[in-house]
């Protein structure tokens, strides 16, 4: 049995004349934290969009939990356990913090309209489980005291944590975070690092991270993939990537 949760090979995405992603490959083993780095416009978010079904890749193969998914819709891929956040926070800002987590779970529940109307026993049980899970994750991301606040009134760092909780209530096996540290101060970034490590260590989650904060990337990653102008440039451990002259020139040298 494979220990790889994700195997991507020759991933290519073309927008008209622009080759945004050109033959990218990456592998994530179960329980690994893998980061994808590269200069602005390198194609990182486009890779995310291809993996999660927002875009249909022009070419390439994506195997998730042993199954090819490159032709599936985003909805089906999410139900298989690949869940992402976005570069810019996307919460239901007029709903409360708690409601955000309940809505996320309803999108994954299989209850019929009739079961909801008549509030059957199985419906009530599912509702209670959803509530318990929301409370569990709110505690984990230190937002339980804010459960009844409108999500839009939270500080930015709290909104970022709520986004992660919203992913986690759907029980993903692969969590994909698009620049989760953007806009966070150093102590919030440190807290984020602990949270991501905890998701892996206590919940067995694999993580794919896009991030520009090099300290976070170097501290947290088991493996790093570097892309430049859509093309794979290097991959390896943080140590190997940090010392790779091509990476230093293309990316770190820009800092
Ligand atoms: N829907 C689209 N249509 C046309 N071009 C696109 C589209 N999405 C992305 N691109 C282009 O693809 C290239 C890669 O963009 P992408 O956002 O994936 O880079 P990135 O590495 O995530 O950048 P950043 O670090 O700045 O977020 C860019 O040239 C971008 O303009």
List strands and helices in order, with pairings.
Elements: E1 4-15, E2 18-29, E3 33-37, H1 44-51, E4 59-64, E5 67-68, H2 74-79, E6 82-84, H3 97-106, H4 113-118, H5 121-140, H6 156-168, E7 174-178, H7 186-203, E8 206-210, H8 214-220, E9 223-228, E10 231-236, H9 238-242, H10 245-250
Parallel strand pairs: 3-8, 3-9, 6-7, 7-8
Antiparallel strand pairs: 1-2, 1-4, 4-5, 9-10
Helix pairs in contact: 3-5, 3-6, 5-6
**Helicity, in percent?**
25-40%
Instruction: List how many beta strands DSSP finds.
Output: 10
Class computed from helices, strands and strand pairing: alpha/beta
Q: What gyration radius follows from the Cα positions, in whole Å? A: 19 Å
Strand order of the largest sheet: 6-7-8-3-9-10
Hetero ligands: adenosine-5'-triphosphate
Structure annotation, total helices? 10
Organism: Denitrificimonas caeni
GO molecular function: ATP binding; ATP hydrolysis activity; L-isoleucine transmembrane transporter activity; L-phenylalanine transmembrane transporter activity; L-valine transmembrane transporter activity
Keywords: Amino-acid transport, ATP-binding, Nucleotide-binding, Transport
Protein name: High-affinity branched-chain amino acid ABC transporter ATP-binding protein LivG
């Amino acid at each position: 049995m494979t220990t790889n949760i994700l195997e991507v090979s020759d991933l290519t995405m073309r927008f008209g004349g622009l080759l945004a992603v050109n033959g990218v490959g990456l592998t994530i083993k179960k329980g690994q934290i893998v980061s994808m780095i590269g200069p602005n416009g390198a194609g990182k978010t486009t890779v995310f969009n291809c993996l999660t079904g927002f875009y249909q890749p022009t070419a390439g193969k994506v195997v998730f939990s042993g199954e090819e998914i490159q032709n599936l819709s985003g909805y089906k891929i999410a139900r298989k356990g690949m869940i992402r956040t976005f570069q810019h926070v996307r919460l239901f800002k007029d709903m409360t913090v708690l409601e955000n987590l309940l809505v996320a779970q309803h999108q994954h529940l299989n209850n019929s309209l009739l079961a909801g109307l008549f509030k059957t026993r199985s419906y009530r049980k599912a509702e209670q489980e959803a509530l318990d899970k929301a409370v569990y994750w709110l505690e984990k991301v230190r937002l339980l005291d804010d459960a009844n606040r409108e999500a839009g009134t939270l500080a930015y760092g709290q909104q970022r944590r709520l986004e992660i909780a919203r992913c986690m209530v759907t029980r993903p096996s692969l969590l994909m975070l698009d620049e989760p540290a953007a806009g966070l101060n150093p102590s919030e970034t440190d807290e984020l690092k602990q949270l991501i490590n905890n998701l892996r260590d206590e919940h067995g989650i694999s993580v794919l991270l896009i991030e520009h904060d090099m300290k976070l990337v170097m501290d947290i990653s088991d493996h790093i993939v570097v892309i430049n102008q859509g093309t794979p440039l290097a991959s390896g451990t943080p140590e190997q990537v940090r010392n790779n002259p091509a990476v230093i020139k293309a990316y770190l040298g820009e800092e």
